[in-house]
């Protein structure tokens, strides 16, 4: 199924993803990917979304969403998850 991508564990991928986050020009302190899952051929990242006390988005939320989207584009063509 995943003949053109390399196998990687979620733990190893999160280490690589968080390194990419910290090196990105739009990094915000506290931005971190804490989970990744495979949805077909796409790697879906999630983590802190900087929500307010009522659970509503803050000004930082779009930046985090865009970073997780960037990670999906960056890593989905390279890796697939294995346990």
Automatic annotation (TrEMBL):
Pfam families listed in its UniProt record: DUF2498
Source domain of life: Bacteria
Protein name: DUF2498 domain-containing protein
Organism: Rouxiella badensis
